[in-house]
Amino acid sequence: MFIQNRTMLVEKGNSDKVIARFSQESPIDSMEGLIDISVMVNNKSKENEEVIVVVRWESREDWKNWEKSDAHLQGHRDSRGQGSPSFILSTSVHMYDSQIVKRGKAFANR
């Protein structure tokens, strides 16, 4: 499994805008090898909110296929020059190769 982890620090009260963006239907949803996308929010800080988007792929190759797909490249062309919304203070992206996945009892009951 290959995992992309995107962490965004946003101005307090704006995490709902990021959630809305990732809730919309997108070409990534039908990509071969996409396992799931999770969006999490930590709003404990008084100054800002942290939004973490975790995208899980069956393999690094599946992720690479998304990165070089026409839909992904067109999305970048369409947004060229627009920059990030002003409420996004910072973004970091990290990639991981999963070494172990342990399934709990709840998973077996699905």
A few lines on this structure:
By secondary structure, this protein is α+β, with helices and mostly antiparallel strands. Helix content is 28%, strand content 35%.
Structure description:
The chain is of the alpha+beta class and about 110 residues long. Helices cover about 30% and strands about 35% of the residues. Strands 2-3-1-4 form a four-stranded antiparallel β-sheet. It starts with a strand and ends with a helix.
What features would you highlight for this structure?
110 residues; alpha+beta; Alpha-Beta Plaits; 4-stranded antiparallel β-sheet; 4 helices; 4 strands; 28% helix; 35% strand; globular
Write the layout of secondary structure elements.
Blueprint: E1 2-11, H1 15-23, E2 34-42, E3 48-57, H2 60-67, H3 70-79, E4 88-97, H4 105-108
Antiparallel strand pairs: 1-3, 1-4, 2-3
CATH topology: Alpha-Beta Plaits
The average pLDDT is 92
Spans of 5+ residues with little confidence (pLDDT < 50)?
none
Straight-line N-to-C gap: 20 Å
Shape: globular
Strand content: 35-45%
CATH top level is: Alpha Beta
Radius of gyration: 16 Å
Supply the helix-strand structural class. Answer: alpha+beta
Q: Tell me what the CATH architecture is.
A: 2-Layer Sandwich
Number of helices, where a helix is a run of at least 4 consecutive DSSP H or I residues: 4
Residues in helix, % = 25-40%
Instruction: Give a count of the beta strands, DSSP E runs of length 2 or more.
Output: 4
Order of helices and strands: EHEEHHEH
What does the largest sheet look like? 4 strands, antiparallel
Return the domain count: 1
